[in-house]
Amino acid sequence: MEKQIKAVLFDLDGVIVFTDRYHYLGWKKLADEHGWAFDEEVNNGCRGVPRMESLEVILRHNGVELPEAEKEELATRKNAYYVELLKDINEEDVYPGAVEFLKKIRATGVKTGLCSSSKNAPLVLESLGLSDYFDAVVTGADIKNAKPDPEIFLLGAEWVGVAPENCVVFEDAPSGVAGALAAGMACVGVGSPELLTEAPVTITDYSTIDIDALLNNQLTGSPV
Ligand code: G6P
Ligand code: MG
């Protein structure tokens, strides 16, 4: 019988690669320079959120208001820190089991796409030799409306040539889960069900995924 799922769309940061750690360090350096409070909890609010919006999250947390030009400069500076940190990225930063999972999915003939808000996504994929695992790569540079808007996922579906209802999204951020569901797609949360309360199912280990159940859109529970 034909499977319902014909494409798997992945977020990047925190789903394929632990770049969320490097994003954290980049923001932390910027925050420390200004004496702003920034911790893991504030960082969670920056997950899946574009660069400028992430800065707003940090400024709001500290009750700081700045002119637009200064915010642009700060976001550019954080990105320079992030890109510098990316020089150290290596295969230990790849989510365990993610590459094997991508290989298995692609071997079934199902399309794979990357839908990341990060404008650095192509650089990260190239640095780790992961570019060839995706039929399409959509980034923050290709869209107008960031997650939780469904735009990035709808464009990903279009680029891999699959209807939204035949796609499943893997996401680690609440905004991404909301975007996937708004796109009319199935969604698997990567991380804890406590953080991803809207995700119909969550995983923390790719090797636990029953691929047949996933492609039949029948993945249930929260396998650990
Ligand atoms: C991802 C990350 C966010 C980051 C955003 C923009 O969604 O989860 O933490 O702010 O990408 O990344 P960029 O590399 O373009 O600054
Ligand atoms: Mg993410």
UniProtKB/TrEMBL annotation:
Superkingdom of source: Bacteria
Positions bound to substrate: D11, L12, D13, W27, S54, K78, S116, S117, S118, K119, N120, K147
Its EC number(s): 5.4.2.6
InterPro entries named among the record's database cross-references: B-phosphoglucomutase_hydrolase, Beta-PGM, HAD-like_sf, HAD-like_SPP, HAD-SF_hydro_IA, HAD_sf, PGP-like_dom2
Positions contributing to Mg(2+) binding: D11, D13, E171, D172
Pfam families xrefs: Hydrolase
Protein name: Beta-phosphoglucomutase
Enzyme class: isomerase
Any one GO MF annotation of this record: beta-phosphoglucomutase activity
SUPFAM superfamilies in alphabetical order: HAD-like
Statement: the UniProt record of this protein carries the keyword Transmembrane helix: no
Cofactor: Mg(2+)
Cofactor descriptive note: Binds 2 magnesium ions per subunit.
Keyword S-adenosyl-L-methionine part of the UniProt annotation: no
Active site residues per record: D11 (nucleophile), D13 (proton donor/acceptor)
Family affiliation: Belongs to the HAD-like hydrolase superfamily. CbbY/CbbZ/Gph/YieH family.
GO terms, biological process: carbohydrate metabolic process
Keywords: Isomerase, Magnesium, Metal-binding
